[in-house]
Inverse folding.
């Protein structure tokens, strides 16, 4: 999702309601900030699992890191660090073996965790598969080819799939729209409220609506729901062990900018798919060319150095990249070390959240393995 600050503002959306004729759902007032309970609060579609890939276990490693939360490099066990923060689950996997595995009290390997914006990278993967399948010509195809409802809006005729992937759409951010997408019951109704403030390809602005439009495109070009598509093209092929959930509106349309729930180990399998450049047990899930395009740096067309095709790109010397969600959730991939790290968090106190830089923690782990 967009960022913590905007979701904190969303908690007080009733103030907007009082001074406008907005149709933002009252549900947003009572539920407040997104949290793990939303997995059961909202209507869901189920992603079925019919196979199960298991990682080996090799917990012999004593991993110690410093989180730099003080001005001194105080090293502590990774287990202790997890317990000091609002960590739901933390998993370190190298060479298909689990080196470290943590679950907060009351949770285990079968627990479902909300992905928030980690799901944006899953949607990006499905776009790559759609191009491989020939359903989409390429990332430069116009969005209005699939979403004619917006064709009469200024600048809409310039909007491409690449702009949506890279969040350079030129669409105006709206708190009300975000509230309606997350808490509302009619996602397609929001198409009429889209407004462009600048030509697509001008500036990168991270918006939930961009990924929502990609989800709508995927459903229309495939003839399947996003749930059915991810089940057929990703969940089954890579051996997700548990049933997943994707929150939907009252018409069954997925909130594709967020709201996918899965186990920590199943998220790790998605990371493994990218670690292996789209290959799974010698079977091609998506093309290697899509992998290379996804993690390449491209600052043209309004994009930025550290974000491409809905993936966050790390340091050049590491070659790492990651999917990131609200509350600093991460799916971290470090190809040089054949390393996958899954971090799933709940919201925590702002000072604690600000002090820790999880990217530094991940790289310390990689340096030790």
């Amino acid at each position: 999702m967009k960022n913590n600050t905007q979701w904190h503002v969303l908690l007080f959306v009733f103030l907007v309601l009082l001074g406008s004729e907005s149709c933002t759902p009252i549900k947003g007032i009572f539920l407040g900030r997104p949290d793990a309970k939303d997995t059961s609060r909202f209507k869901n579609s189920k992603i079925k699992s019919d196979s199960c890939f298991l990682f080996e276990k090799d917990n012999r490693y004593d991993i110690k890191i410093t989180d730099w939360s003080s001005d001194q490099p105080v090293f502590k066990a990774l287990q202790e660090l997890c317990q000091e923060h609002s960590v739901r689950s933390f998993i370190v996997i190298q060479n298909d073996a689990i080196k470290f595995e943590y679950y907060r009290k009351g949770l285990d390997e079968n627990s479902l965790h909300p992905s928030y914006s980690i799901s944006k990278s899953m949607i990006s993967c499905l776009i790559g598969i759609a191009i491989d399948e020939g359903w989409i010509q390429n990332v430069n195809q116009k969005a209005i080819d699939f979403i004619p409802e917006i064709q009469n809006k200024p600048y809409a005729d310039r909007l491409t799939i690449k702009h949506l992937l890279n969040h350079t759409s030129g669409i105006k951010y709206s708190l009300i729209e975000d509230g309606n997408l997350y808490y509302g019951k009619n996602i397609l109704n929001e198409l009429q409220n889209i407004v462009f403030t600048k030509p697509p390809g001008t500036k990168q602005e991270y918006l939930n609506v961009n990924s929502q439009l990609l989800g709508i495109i995927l459903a229309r070009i495939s003839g399947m729901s996003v749930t059915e598509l991810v089940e057929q093209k990703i969940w089954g092929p890579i051996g997700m062990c548990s049933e997943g959930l994707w929150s939907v509106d009252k018409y069954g349309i997925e909130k594709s900018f967020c709201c996918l729930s899965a186990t920590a180990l199943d998220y790790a399998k998605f990371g493994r798919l990218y670690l292996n450049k789209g290959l799974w047990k010698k079977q091609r899930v998506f093309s290697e060319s899509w992998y290379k395009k996804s993690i390449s740096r491209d600052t043209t067309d309004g994009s930025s150095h550290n974000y491409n095709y809905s993936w966050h790109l790390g340091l050049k010397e590491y070659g790492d990249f990651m999917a990131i969600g609200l509350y600093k959730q991460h799916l971290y991939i470090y190809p040089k070390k054949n390393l996958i790290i899954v971090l799933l968090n709940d919201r925590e106190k702002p000072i604690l959240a600000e002090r820790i830089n999880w990217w530094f923690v991940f790289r310390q782990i990689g340096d030790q393995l």
User: Anything to note?
Assistant: The longest strand covers residues 87-94.
